[in-house]
Amino acid sequence: KSSVQTIGEEQIQNPYTELLVLKGHQDIVRFLVQIDDCRFASAGDDGIIFLWNAQTGEKLYELHGHTHKITAIAPFSSSDVTEEKTDLIITASADRTVIVWDCASGRQVQKVSCFHSTVKVLRKPFLQRLNVWLSGGSDLCVWNRKLDLLCKTSHLTDAGISDLVELPKNCVAAAVGKELIIFRLSASNNGSEGWNILEVKRLVDHQDNISSLVSVNDLTFVTGSHVGELIVWDALDWTKQASECNFWDSSVHPDVQPEIKLSQSPHETSVQHLTSDEECVFAAVGKGIYVYNLQMKRVITCQRTAHDSSVLHIEKLPNRQLISCSEDGSVRIWELREKQQLPAEPVPTGFFNMWGFGRANKQANQAAKKMHENTPVYFLELVGDLIGHSSAVQMFLYFGELGLATCSADHLIILWKDGERESSLRSLTLFKKLAQNGDLQLRL
Fold this sequence. Notes:
InterPro entries: WD40/YVTN_repeat-like_dom_sf, WD40_PAC1, WD40_repeat_CS, WD40_repeat_dom_sf, WD40_rpt, WDR41. WD repeats lie at residues 22-62, 63-111, 304-344. Keywords: Autophagy, Cytoplasm, Repeat, WD repeat. The chain starts with 15 loop residues before the first strand and ends with a helix. The strands form 8 sheets. A 4-stranded antiparallel beta sheet has the order 1-32-31-30. A 4-stranded antiparallel beta sheet has the order 2-3-4-5, with no helix packed on it. A 4-stranded antiparallel beta sheet has the order 6-7-8-9, with no helix packed on it. Helices cover 11% and strands 43% of the residues. By secondary structure, the protein is mainly beta. It has 4 helices and 32 strands. The model is unreliable at 250-264 and 347-358 (pLDDT under 50).
């Protein structure tokens, strides 16, 4: 029997009671990227990019240009003072090309085919400040807005860069296998548009391949690995601030509640995804969700079996809610809540202390009680279970009032809508139409 928590049919706190199924893709849909408040793009293994309206579900454009699966996608808004703001997206493919698309027209703006390997990561961390963007594969490349290659590193490894995160002082951290390589970007001193990439440091603290990176703020970033290591780094000097390489192992932290540990099976301890709200890091680890408090430097709560299969993506909403999606095809909504603590009871030791004798025992009990009262205890409550996909849900986008978009290996995209809001909008539209018709009849 599955140990996964269930919610039942009555989901009072789940607003997503309507759904729109968006069809068009012919293979696994792996990526969703937000363009603006109501538009997003989808891409996957069929090599096609679709642009959608998140409010209506309307298909805006179908973009053809790649011959193999899409491996990375990123938004890319032009910010030229002389030009109007243009919403663009960049896509990379296993066909070793990168294409820039205009979201307003669906046209190709530029195409680059000079890559020696597949680009796995696209980032625009320095776009606003330095007006350049980065691509990661077997090399780290720096490009300008016109897709001119400014500089690149020498061949790193056959595995290449799996993820990138922006750091202060024009630096970037690249995950390359087990290593975290820090690079610094600098403009040439001769006044030309040339750039330099300098390798500053290699961090080899992880025991296995790095699977996820997240920037917390200008001072901190966090990495996770395939064997469940989580490391908190200083973003300025790249030193290790804290680590929880065994934070799921109760033998390492005997004071931690028994449920706050992971299955010891290696394939169930991989950190698939990390996200942060600056106070906590939320980690998708194996089948579970773990909340790591950065100030306390420990896990404050978890759902060890949040899903029946691996959790692929997790995000913190503006409220105290989390959304997670899994290989099992489900999407679940969680709320981080604080338990109401009961007064702590003393735990006596020894014969005399059993009867409360001795000053040391009294002081120890008071200290333990005070510590217990001052330490909040949290838990994750399941408040919504969205069942609609028939295969692994790869990721999702949250659009606030417009709802939630999910993509899956079943080739579908689903827009999850607030049923009450959609019903009231339809009633309002109908009322306006009736009012307009009545006004027209009066005029006639």
